Amino acid sequence: MARKDIISETSNRQEVDDFLSRARGLSVSAPASGPSQGRLIFAMDATASRQPSWDRAAEIQAEMFDAVDGVGALDIQLVFFRGLSECKASGWCRNAKSLRNYISKVSCHAGHTQIERVLAHVERESANGKVDALIYVGDCIEENPDHLAPIAGKLALKGVKAFMFQEGYDRDASFAFGEIARITDGAFMQFDASSAKKLRDLLGAVASYAVGGQNGLSDYQKKTGSDDVLKLGHQLRKKS
Q1: Taking the mean position of all CA atoms in its chain, how far away is CA 226?
Q2: Does the chain have fewer CB atoms within 10 Å around its N or its C terminus?
Q3: Dihedral sign (CA 219, 45, 180, 100)
Q4: Percentage, residues of the chain above pLDDT 90
Q5: CA atoms 217, 221, 226, 232: torsion sign
Q6: Three-state SS for 17?
Q7: Is the pLDDT of residue 19 over 60?
Q8: DSSP class of residue 195?
Q9: Which of 23, 41, 40 shows the shortest CA–CA distance to 150?
Q10: Number of helical H runs and strand E runs in the chain
């Protein structure tokens, strides 16, 4: 699969209030008729501390495709950052084998978070075709949240919901991830290193939402009986 470097995009603080205001007024368009199809970007922190979580994600990512099997088509793009300046994206994948092959070739390297570059990439990608959702999995943040809010506002204006999944309970990350989810009308959930099933269910839930909207999410919750998926759905319903 082709890879491409992601170019950083910066924003000044003055944009924060402007985009927040516009994002709050965003209305969601009705889905187009025809076969269900969704596109989501699966972004992960690949800095050094994340290797165990990266390996676990490689094993459970198939749930996103399994969740929508027989319901519709799902395209997923992997985005990751590591080291001091590396931030890359895969091509679009339509099956678990292709995505896993790409994930398995990546090892985690020490470095700083590059969430701003991830959000900027998603915003640019959405200009080339509708992106239904962003899944971000990480444990910390080393960036100024004020720099992230304007870009999250751009995602909201394009109808991209951010599902921010935090491993652990770092307070700064909780605040920043929660804000990104709030601005985009997405959802924020936390999990710990021992809860692989929770993350698997959450990945499947977002995939179901990307393809089938609220109905797809409800059907997935009924199938799994997951309280975590139910909580995620409640967050979305409060914002609709």
Answers
A1: 20
A2: C
A3: negative
A4: 80
A5: positive
A6: helix
A7: no
A8: -
A9: 23
A10: 9, 7
3-state helix, strand, coil in the chain (%, to 5): 50, 20, 30
Query: What predicted TM-score, i.e. pTM, was given to this entire model?
Result: 0.86
Contacts of 171 (CB under 8 A, 6+ apart): none
**CA atoms of 125 and 100, how far apart (whole Å):** 21
Amino acid sitting at position 35: P
Whether the Cβ atoms of residue 65 and residue 196 lie closer than 8 Å to each other:
no
CA distances to 31, 132, 211, 238 from 36, in Å: 9, 12, 6, 24
Report the candidate in 170, 172, 168, 192 with the shortest Cα–Cα distance to residue 180: 172
Residue with tokens 């989501």: 40
In order of 8, 98, 119, 167, the CA distances from 126 in angstroms are 16, 22, 11, 26
Q: Which residue from 203, 201, 205 is spatially nearest to 216, judged by alpha carbons? A: 205
Tens of pLDDT, residue by residue over 171-190, are 999 999 999 999 999 999 99
